[in-house]
Specification:
The complex is a heterotrimer of chains A (174), B (148) and C (673). Chain A is of the alpha/beta class and 174 residues long. Chain A is built from 5 helices and 7 strands; from the N terminus they run αβββαβαβαββα. Chain A has one domain: Glutaredoxin (3-Layer(aba) Sandwich). In chain A, strand 6 and strand 7 form a beta hairpin. The termini of chain A are far apart. Chain B is 36% helix and 29% strand. A 5-stranded mixed barrel of chain B has the order 2-4-5-7-6. Chain C has 4 domains: 165 residues, no CATH class; 226 residues, no CATH class; 130 residues, no CATH class; 101 residues. In chain C, a hairpin with a 5-residue loop joins strand 7 and strand 8. In chain C, helix 11 packs antiparallel against helix 12, helix 15 crosses helix 16 and helix 18 runs antiparallel to helix 19. The chains are: A alpha/beta (174), B alpha+beta (148), C alpha+beta (673). Chains in contact: A-B, A-C, B-C. The interface between B and C is large, with 41 and 46 residues. Strand 1 of chain B pairs antiparallel with strand 1 of chain C, so a sheet runs across the interface.
Amino acid sequence: MTRFLLPLAAFIVLVGFLAVGLNLKPREVPSPLIGKPAPVFQSQLLHEPERMLASQDNLGKVWLLNVWASWCVSCREEHPLLVELARSGIVPIYGLNYKDKRDLALQWLNQYGDPYTVSVVDPEGRIGIDYGVYGVPETYVIDKNGVIRHKQIGPVTVESLEKKILPLIKELQG
Amino acid sequence: MKPRHRKLAIIVSGVSALGIAAALVLNAFESNMVFFFSPSQVAANEAPVGKSFRIGGLVEEGSIKRQSDGVTVNFVVTDTAKVIPVVYTGILPDLFKEGKGVVAQGKLSADGVFRADEVLAKHDENYMPPEAAGALEQARIQKTVMTQ
Amino acid sequence: MIPELGNFALILALLLAITQGTLPIIGAARGIPSWVALARPVVQGQFVFLAIAFGCLAYSFVNNDFSVMNVARNSNSELPIQYRIAASWGSHEGSLLLWVFMLAGWSVAVSVFSRHLPDEMVARVLGVMGLVSVGFILFLLVTSNPFDRLLPAAFEGSDLNPLLQDPGMVIHPPMLYMGYVGFSVAFAFAIAALISGEMDAAWARWSRPWTTVAWVFLTIGIMLGSWWAYYELGWGGWWFWDPVENASFLPWLVGTALVHSLAVTEKRGSFKSWTVLLAICAFSLSLLGTFLVRSGVLTSVHAFATDPTRGVFILAFLVIVIGSSLLLFAWRAPKVGLGGKFDLVSRESMLLANNLLLMVAAGSVLLGTLYPLIMDSLDLGKISVGTPYFEAVFVPLMTPAIFLMGLGPLARWKQASLPELMLRLRWAFGVSVVTALLMPFVMGEWKPLVSFGLLLAFWIIATIFVSIRQRLHNSGQGGLFTKLAKQSRSYYSMHLAHFGIAVFIIGVTLVNGYETEKDVRMEIGSTVTMGGYTFRFNGASPVSGPNYQAMRGDIDVLRNGEKIRVMQPEKRTYNASGMAMTEPAIDTGFLRDLYVALGEPLEDGAWVVRVYHKPFVDWIWFGCLLMAFGGILAVTDRRYRLKVHNKHVETATVAEDKRAASNPRLSTGGKKA
């Protein structure tokens, strides 16, 4: 009997490793930037290339930084929520248009609505590197002192908005 | 042969065959395993000298230089904290670009240049090799710890 | 509307699969004929609904319905129609729908071609397949629904990965999946046998053709994948020991062992529990392959789909399916009994040794594939295990296996004599050694490894020749052709498949030994010479494809100063994704391939160009095709076509075996079939 159990034992060991391996995916790693000052950037506006926005200009208010792109399918999922949130006026949303083409990005906003106070462009993804962007979309909650308080990887959902993001914003706006 | 002897012979040959196979596998493992190091680890002299290993990170902007033979390329791999100069002879993968993730395999020479004999970039525009992503993540943690 | 219809069909298929996975099995255990009788109609119903679901998905792709997330992510209106159809299984969701659709297809095949089987057996087999189907449909509906909507709809799709926009990639996944899923039949037969406790020669005879067909599909699938990597990745390699390639190779190795072990179980009644274990392993590795590819748990050039929640689901599914079958095995297998006894030197022992070698090889490939993951999970550093490891392990393990492959078909069942075998094979051995030593000189340079590889190949060919000669010698009266026609298809099928291995080895040996590769800077008008061919670069010019822009190189190939061919490799940039792709130009020949790929552009119209001369490379895939043809020939053997008279055939074969065992002259030709 025991020798017939050997295959099962070997399989259990294998499953153990696979299970641990699954938990190692970078998605699970919390961003080391939480509680740290948001990386400073200065970049062109999407709508008005001749104007620049510097992230320090936002000191003193709570704001959201949403990383998006017209080529990103998941961005379309969260977009109606962002438009609604912007309409409510609870918090200003700044867009970081990541590795995108200007004309496509503008066409995209025309079609789906523009929830952003302004969008800045990051065609080479350099600002994205500073922020540790794994994939688009990502959303950061930044407080009055310019510190990152929360990072949402993947699309914003009704659940994450109600349970985490909105209460946090209320608390920060205090 | 008597049945008992036959059974013994089968067991002995089976065990010795497995033993040989195990020795083979272990030996092959010993000599062919390739470790991964980030540029920061290489800078801290953690990487072996004279043995093949992998490095990963981003190709630094503006660092790609082609030598006059046309097929030898110099570039710099960075994890945003430390950098390693790399030299490679051959055709680079389609998605090898400045500012993109890359993994290279080769040896570190005495002058601190990494001589790559293989360069891997993944076949998806928005995909970063996990090793390279890990190296960047580590460097970022280091930096934030140091600035505190 | 159409996607909702597909979703609805998928849910109905799930309900039928649940029915299929429960009632017939319970019915067989409790003796309720009406529940047992349910198996066939439910299977066929499930197939119809899955066909509707798959049709709906394909329809959405063909009609560019970008309100479906899956379509928006994996297709584009510029995509040519054939790739839009292929895109329906190019994505994670679509490929799993294809998986479960094929499972239903295999189930229907079992339900149709099983009229001669006892109803309880069919009910158990289909029940087990139904349970597997439940897991996969649940997985689809819960974590990766291919019909999820994207509202508001996208105005354009993100495009199919350009690497997949290729005819080889259109048929590679379906072939591979047919193989993966096909092993579910062997698995279901094994589990049914464990449940019922009836495990006899008849059981082995039933599952054999199914296993062989699955093995044929898997062989062709792997061959296509290798061929695709060769001409599409632009690196000129045909096998990279990449985790995803290994994931398909593992079930193949175990499946090969299973095909041979089933032969012994059918002919001699031995190895029963071993055969059952192999059937469980082959299907488990197919599931593991799906898991490795689809969860992104390993890094790989193929890692297209990555999502941890899916990984957790598949892992749980693996634990349930494999864990419970291994538990069942541990519980029931000890009661199975040992079957026919055999001597230390006999055909059984050689087949067993080959089985062990294949399993050890599979184990070492599995270890090499998973070891980086194990190291990582124990936090011992990030490592990679590359080609040198696999070659260092694989070649020494396969060498004795190939030696035995020549010996086995000539050895007698039950008890063989080593001196007699040696006497019979001394010419085969001598001829293969001499040819192997001399052949490399014909190629231009003597290399020890080439000689060694050729020795293995010529040994197989020489022993096949000896086997056929002796078989004919012992076939009684008649001319050569009468005698040749007398032999069974399964006898020829074995030799054809083994001959395929020899052709494969020749291809691998010669291309590894004599290929030449050059990465060169080529200015307009400059030349490079290799393997007797001169390549002249005439520059590159822009061209437009249906959904890409490209630079097309123009290279003349000259032999003895005469232009024999123009080669036009391309460097493409796809419009939708902006991805760059190297499209090499290949001149295929019986004895060699010429392979040219564009690297990067340099100043003044010069390019970096990669040029290969690859002798005998096509023999690698031709060898795989021969193996697959061998498998096809085996399932068309007479005794499978005469299933109606199953009982008669069975007794006849047993009688024949007995005669063979008692009469050494008759058995010398051997009959593996």
